[in-house]
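Same chain as my last thread, 177 residues:
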Amino acid sequence: MSSELLCLDVAIDHRIRHQIKPSRGEQGEHSIAHFIKLEDLYRSLDRIDHFEFLVTADLAGPLRMGGILVILHRPTNDHPFSEGTDRVVEKSPTLRALKDAFELFDISLTGEVSLIDAFPFLPRADLRTTGVDAYNARSNRHFSSFLGAVVAKQPQVALSDVTSKALESARYFLSGG
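reply #2:
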């Protein structure tokens, strides 16, 4: 099956596309609390590129509570952050598939959906350069910021590609394991 017809490993059947009708629920209360959690984490990190923060903030979505939240695992090592959000979405197979899937419902990925990484600003490559203990400590801090952002966002719907194994690992580190 073509990757264009898969989104988070769920097939999107062309036969149902014509039956999908967009539904606009009541807009949530204006809130920047989830954004502030990500901004606080960003400001505490000295090596994160400002363009990465801008794209992350843009993908974190509308500044209101509720709505749709997509939880991804972590940023990849090769996003072209300096080229802007549209280019990052275009170059990422996952983000592009999400964009295409939401467009079926007449929903804008970058205007109506919040995307937040469970480990924001923490690419897998950091494990190779910082060592396991330092990486685990950073993972704990990044995951805590993510949890704070989710609680602040109070989504009505959450879609996640984070596996139960990753969540168990996060719980282990958060408990001081």
